[in-house]
Amino acid sequence: MRQKVRKTLIIIFLLLFPVTLNFLSPYVSIDGAMIGIISGSLLLFIFMFVTAIFFGRAWCGWICPMAGLSEACLSINNKNVNVKRLRIIRYFIFTVWAGILIAMFVMAGGIKGVNPLHLTENGISVDGPMKYITYYLVLALFFIVTVTVGKRGACHSFCWMSPFLVGGMALGKLLKIPRLRVKADSSLCVKCGACDKKCPMSINVSSSIKDGYINTSDCILCGECIDNCKKKVLKYSRK
Ligand code: SF4
Ligand code: SF4
Ligand code: SF4
């Protein structure tokens, strides 16, 4: 039941992507920064950072429009990916983007205002022919990378948003704030491997649980491992 709800949600958010595209756009943030404006996308990235302190990467498992597309691709390519190698590419892209963003704010003379609807004045992102091209290019890029690389390949390799989530989690850990996690009673585990097979983030769940919880920033709290473990080893916990 939980997975049906989750999958319905991520499909709904994928269908709403023509409306929300600009609020997830790395370009809109930079365009705003050029005139000293904090745009809607930068506000959303800050919101993601803050929510990750308490809910980790639940955004990626339950809300992100790209989650629906990534999981649809599992029926074409269900191979695990080399998470560590792809992470290097992702952080390189994020560092370049963040550097440009900061440089633009500096060149604009600092932050001059906030406009959540910057470049989205009528509230809908895809409102013209050029926007349709951008929309289909983003979908095509995510689709091609994911079916080529494997499970959530685009998420692992070039998502500019996930570093905000990982950063929020790191801050929460530093401040010792309880965060939603997947907790495990490893004494019940029979090493059947069902959780490893079902994890969309290529996490070796059965090995990770020796610490008593899934201890990696790659976990998106989707609950697939929880719902596919017949021995009830895993559960959500905020401790
Ligand atoms: S990694 Fe990025 S693209 Fe993938 S689900 Fe998370 S926020 Fe969305
Ligand atoms: S599905 Fe459950 S019992 Fe099987 S390996 Fe994973 S945690 Fe252990
Ligand atoms: S470890 Fe479990 S909750 Fe985390 S991403 Fe994998 S399947 Fe989802």
Count of helical regions: 13
Number of strands: 4
Structural class: mainly alpha
Shape: globular
Helix fraction bin? 55-70%
* Topology order in helix (H) and strand (E) letters: HHHEHHHHEHHHEHHHE
The radius of gyration over CA amounts to 19 Å
Write up what this structure looks like.
With 239 residues, the chain is mainly alpha-helical. It contains 13 helices and 4 strands. The protein has helices at residues 2-15, 17-20, 26-34, 40-55, 58-62, 65-72, 83-107, 129-149, 153-158, 162-174, 194-198, 205-208, 224-227; strands at 37-39, 113-115, 181-184, 234-237. The longest helix is centred in the middle third of the chain and has 25 residues, at 83-107. The two termini are 24 Å apart. The protein binds iron/sulfur cluster (3 copies).
Secondary structure blueprint with pairings:
Elements: H1 2-15, H2 17-20, H3 26-34, E1 37-39, H4 40-55, H5 58-62, H6 65-72, H7 83-107, E2 113-115, H8 129-149, H9 153-158, H10 162-174, E3 181-184, H11 194-198, H12 205-208, H13 224-227, E4 234-237
Parallel strand pairs: 1-2
Antiparallel strand pairs: 3-4
Bound molecules: iron/sulfur cluster (SF4) (3 copies).
In short:
The chain is mainly alpha-helical and 239 residues long. It contains 13 helices and four strands. It is 56% helix and 6% strand.
List descriptors.
239 residues, 13 helices, two-stranded antiparallel sheet, binds iron/sulfur cluster, mainly alpha, two-stranded parallel sheet
